[in-house]
Amino acid sequence: MFLRNDYRRELRNGSLGTVAAVISEDALVVDFDGTVYELAGRGLDNLVLAYAVTVHMAQGSAFRRVVMPVVRTRLLDRSLVYTAVTRAREQVVLIGERGVTASAVVAEASAHRRETSLRLALRGHLPPRPGG
């Protein structure tokens, strides 16, 4: 997984690739969706092994199979389950208690419950709302 935006190579933070060849101790050939790059020296600093990725990191990507551990947490809600499930092209495996999964699917999205104080922080910096 590439960890930074590299506009010259058209690689983005979260781009997933496959190591195609090891050239030397500090040089690799990596295939990112059919485009092959030789990464060496400092270019390798932005590359890490990614046997698994978080749901948030997977946004915008698709995978043949998705395996998601389902555990009761404050962040587990229907939007997280939806995002994970819709990343899969062929198969989804949810591992955990059915009750936890069922609760997550009906839970209000945690983003809707978040208290940020953003409105207070922006007061006086935005134009008034039309009609109000």
TrEMBL record:
Query: What is the top-level taxon of the source organism?
Result: Bacteria
InterPro entries tied to this protein: P-loop_NTPase (IPR027417), UvrD-like_helicase_C (IPR027785)
All copies of the UvrD-like helicase C-terminal domain together span: 49-95
Q: What is this protein called?
A: UvrD-like helicase C-terminal domain-containing protein
Taxon lineage? Bacteria, Pseudomonadati, Pseudomonadota, Alphaproteobacteria, Hyphomicrobiales
